[in-house]
Amino acid sequence: MGKTILMVDDSASVRQMVGMTLKQAGYTVVEACDGREALQKATASRVDAVITDLNMPGMDGLSFIRQYRATPASNGVPIVFLTTESDEGLKAQAKQAGATGWMVKPFKPDQLLAVMRKVAGA
Amino acid sequence: MSELDPADVFRQEANELIETLEQALLDLEKRPDDRELVGLAFRALHTLKGSGAMFGFTAVSEFIHEFETAFDRVRKGEAAADRRLIAAALEARDHVAHLIEDPDCDPKRGEAILAALKVAVSGEAAPAATSAPNAPAAGIDATSQAQPAGAGWHVRFRLPADALTLGTNPLLLLDELRGLGPCEVVALAGEVPTLDRIEPQQCYLAWDVTLRADVAKDAVDDVFLFVRDDMELSIEPLAADAADVPGAPAALPAMAESPKPAAPAPAAEPQTAQRPAAKAAAGGTERGAGAKVERNATLRVPAERLDELMDRVGELVIAQARLSQLAETIHDASLINVAEEIERLTASLRDTTMGTRMVPIGSLFGRFRRLVHDLSEDLGKPISFVTEGEDTELDKTVIEQLADPLVHLIRNSVDHGLENPDRRAEAGKPATGTLRLSASHRGAEVAIAVSDDGAGLNAERIRRRAEEAGLLAAGQAISEGELNRMIFQPGFSTAAQVTALSGRGVGMDVVKKTIDGLRGSIDVDTLPGKGTTVTLRLPLTLAIIDGLLVRVGDDRYTIPLAAVEECLELPTGVDKDARGRSFLNLRGELVPFLKLRGLFQTEGEPDPYQKVVVVSSDSMRVGLVVDQIIGNNQTVIKQLSRLHSGLKTFSGATILGDGTVALILDVMHLVGFGQKLEERRRAETLGRAA
Amino acid sequence: MHALTIRLQDEMFALEATHVREILDPVPITRVPNAGSFVGGLINVRGSVVPLADLRVSFGMDRPPQDADTRIVVMEISLDGEPMVAGILADKVYDVTDIEAASIEDAPKVGMRWPAEYVRGIGRRDDDFVIIPDMQQIFGARTNLAAENG
């Protein structure tokens, strides 16, 4: 049984791309389309890592990271956020909120896998 | 569910985003200072750009990047969202849609649009400083120093205290270093406190790694990409092996491998991420917070599957009715229990299934805003477009079919109804015309109205045109309503000049055809000089409705329950009114009634105590006299064949629990039919009296 | 012609067998008020509501009540070029047989008891004449459609 990754993005196409890539690499993928759903899924059962977009309707990525980090369930769970530009200000905010790492969109499947191995292991 | 082609998923999603963008832009034109709208438009662009690049739509992504850069000035408050900018942005939106369909199209057009957009946001071309949309993934600092050609690197690092809690796993970092080449790893445990002061979730260890591999410094640096900012890290070439790294005690007992990662404590206290804000950027704006649009989790399901589901539920309802009937006959208590349970479940399954097919009409209304906007520009008629009742829900198939008729009605209103500003000024009206699109529930119907405050229909011209077109005999008497409805006849057009938009004599008959097909009706109200309202009335044509089953003679009929107001006994003597009237005194109000036995030429003797079912249709109430009221039933609507499509008194048929067919009464038409009979009888009575 | 032969009163009719879906024993018929007597009823055929046509009306025949031989032939009809399903009342259903094309003659223009436009041809089976009705004409005839009364 592979590690469980929670994938949070409001874009179905990104979720699908990430989901397919991770599944092929042996991860189990749980999807959520906004922060609210992500928070519910991340706290309902243990996940091994979280990939989240920041820009989302409903609850955005930063609020999600903050609220998730406020729960014991997030202890030791790496959170990688997705961002479109390498915006240092945003990166700092996300890290401040408790993110572990980031990825710049667009990314290729092997880049995604490299980052996942880095934070969650194979 | 089968995996879809990601590019198709992107296209579908892109269409929605483009739609969102368009709506936001159109709203912005009205409320240029609404930050949420700007945020919404920006977010749509942003997502489009990101996923576009990921799915190989490079041209789209690059174009949007420029679009976004220009639009960013609006977001930053440096440019106003004026009409010119919105127009340019809408063009850009169209180009995005075009690029998604045809990524290889001529880039010149895109450049021209961008140029216009840049002019619109700044008055002069914005500096094309940010023209690199595809920043490298996993941001890497440009710290490429000269590579010392050496045997490797001496790496020392200490993680921030909360690194473990925040998901950084030092074991993985060490693994990654090992991936670069052979490593000697020494854990530095000098900072580990005594047991009574130890915090199990904190990371006290530091590591000293000797990496013997000829790799670039960047590669080593990248291992620490995510933690670099907050940690102590030194990477020195092996040749210049520095014994003293500040903060790292030299010569420590060599504890190779396994720095014990703190196991996540189940009862750990909530951890709020607080750390010295060494690099926290003060100026960072909270992105994403701008677009606070609520959206529930949704699931995409092919529409046919919903149709199939509805069919199955329909069959289930019929089977359930049979079960209930059987249970009644057999009269076994436990069987009746089960039958009732199934009946309840079926009803709720039915409601849920139908609920999934109900779509708020707002989704359709939204599409017309662009149409009105464009028409307004093209014809030079300023228009205020008002929509009401967007959350009125209708079956999705009905909504889909309404799109075309509404386009025609709106075009017609703008083209022929609303006057140009000069004419409006002459008539003492505000220069901006109002076009109103509204939807509301009325009993078992939905009314959708398109109204304008324009010139109104010209009765004389309609008559002349209808006579020319041979739709009306010269001088033929015709009611006002019927005359107005002439505009929906095929081949009818009053436009003095044919515009590209309407007046070609096609279109309005499409409206009638579609509405007829939906078993609806069209009303036209017009006041010369004041405006015109076209109202489409549609039955809530759902696959299954709640019905009231009644008996007339030996036949059973179903009346849509939503139209039923009350049931009562027909007072004796009321049908023997000497003046030939068929009116019922309902709490002081006179309500006409129709004897279904007469209407349906039912044979045999009526029951001694006749019942009246009072139904309403568009504020008209009518009593339907029946022999017996049997009770409520779930009614699966089956369309009548074309052999019976002329019978407007029935909206369909259904199958009852015993397997027989019962006709469903079309309340709207029955009321009309009754009215006519009533009038005819009155005329006959008058004729006899004369 | 591959034909299902049925009896309407004392005449034998041949229906295109490939268009026949099934033959039913009499089922409850729901009267459709104001629909006229040609398609004055509806029946339930496996969960579908199907109009029931009485060809005897088109041919001006007597319409005695149903008896033990009465059947309903469910078949596909083409109406204005679009297919639909309808039931046909039969006083009796015989069998499926081949009627040689060579034996089929045009309906005589005169001297026939039946409306000529409803007859596609007269076939011969053993010593009997078989009427081949023109279903398209019969069902397409305006008089046979339920009139609008709204």
UniProtKB/TrEMBL annotation, chain A:
Q: Which InterPro entries match?
A: Bact_response_regulator, CheY-like_superfamily, Sig_transdc_resp-reg_receiver
- Record has Cell wall biogenesis/degradation as a keyword: no
* Keyword Disulfide bond part of the UniProt annotation: no
Ranges for domain Response regulatory come to 4-120
Pfam families assigned to the protein according to its UniProt record, in alphabetical order: Response_reg
Q: Which keywords has UniProt assigned to this entry?
A: Phosphoprotein
Taxonomically, the superkingdom here is Bacteria
Question: Which residues does the record list as 4-aspartylphosphate (modified residue)?
Answer: 53
Q: Which PANTHER family match?
A: CHEMOTAXIS TWO-COMPONENT RESPONSE REGULATOR, STRESS RESPONSE REGULATOR PROTEIN 1
For this entry, the protein name equals Response regulator
Which species is this record about? Jiella sonneratiae
From TrEMBL, chain B:
The organism's superkingdom is given as Bacteria
Query: Keywords for this entry?
Result: ATP-binding, Chemotaxis, Kinase, Nucleotide-binding, Phosphoprotein, Transferase, Two-component regulatory system
Task: Identify the species of origin.
Answer: Jiella sonneratiae
Could you confirm whether the keyword Kinase appears in this record? yes
Q: Which reaction does it catalyse?
A: ATP + protein L-histidine = ADP + protein N-phospho-L-histidine
Q: Where is the HPt domain?
A: 1-103
The taxonomic lineage of its organism, from the top, reads: Bacteria, Pseudomonadati, Pseudomonadota, Alphaproteobacteria, Hyphomicrobiales
Where, per the database record, does this protein carry Phosphohistidine? 46
Bilayer-crossing regions: none
- Protein name per UniProt: Chemotaxis protein CheA
PROSITE patterns, alphabetized: CHEW, HIS_KIN, HPT
Q: Tell me the Pfam families matching this sequence.
A: CheW, H-kinase_dim, HATPase_c, Hpt
Provide the residue span(s) of the region labelled Disordered: 251-296
Q: Where is the Histidine kinase domain?
A: 294-542
Q: What is its EC number?
A: 2.7.13.3
The UniProt entry, under SUPFAM superfamilies, shows:
ATPase domain of HSP90 chaperone/DNA topoisomerase II/histidine kinase, CheW-like, Histidine-containing phosphotransfer domain, HPT domain, Homodimeric domain of signal transducing histidine kinase
Extent of Low complexity compositional bias:
251-291
Which top EC class is named for this enzyme in its record?
transferase
The record, for SMART domains, names: CheW, H-kinase_dim, HATPase_c, HPT
Domain (CheW-like) ranges: 544-676
Biological role: Involved in the transmission of sensory signals from the chemoreceptors to the flagellar motors. CheA is autophosphorylated; it can transfer its phosphate group to either CheB or CheY.
UniProtKB/TrEMBL annotation, chain C:
Where is the chain membrane-spanning? Answer: none
Pfam families, per the entry: CheW (PF01584)
Domain CheW-like, first and last residues per copy: 1-144
Question: What PROSITE patterns does the database record attribute to this sequence?
Answer: CHEW
Q: Which domain of life is it from?
A: Bacteria
Q: Which SUPFAM superfamilies would you find in this protein's record? A: CheW-like (SSF50341)
Which SMART domains has this protein been placed in?
A: CheW
Q: Which residues form the signal peptide?
A: none
Q: What is this protein called?
A: Chemotaxis protein CheW
Protein source organism: Jiella sonneratiae
